[in-house]
Write a structure and sequence with these properties.
It contains five helices and two strands; from the N terminus they run αααββαα. By secondary structure, the chain is mainly α. The chain has two domains: about 90 residues, no CATH class; about 45 residues, no CATH class.
Length: about 160
Amino acid sequence: MLSQSDKILKDLIIITAILVVSFLLFSTFDVLELIVDFSQRHEEYEIDELLSTFVVLSICLSLFSWRRIKEADCARLNIEQKNVELMQAFAEIKTLQGILPVCSYCNKIRDDQGDWNDLQSYINDNLDAEFSHGACPDCFDIRMQELKESKGEVQTLK
């Protein structure tokens, strides 16, 4: 299958060949002189106006085709670049799928080999992720209350 640039090159070669053959035919048979003579003999057909209109139409179509070719080439390059970016992003993504068996008491996870692992180490190994630790406001309040109570117990023991 031909690529877009190969198709464009093929079209340009065909257009060039048509132009060369046209030039050789026009120079050999004096086609323009024949057209002028025919036009003068049959003025009612207005061949000279039709010919000039055809030439202008051909030039316009050539320019618009060239612009379309350039736009298509830019779009192809853009799509290729986006595909490369998507493939790079896809290579970086690791996902967990399915059901994860978790112990309801200690929150350890059973892996594919049947071993029970700590939640953090399992996620670090399977997702290339790291944990940072903090405390939610509810747990923070509970722990602060526990600390205050334990300090109160320590002071009463003294």
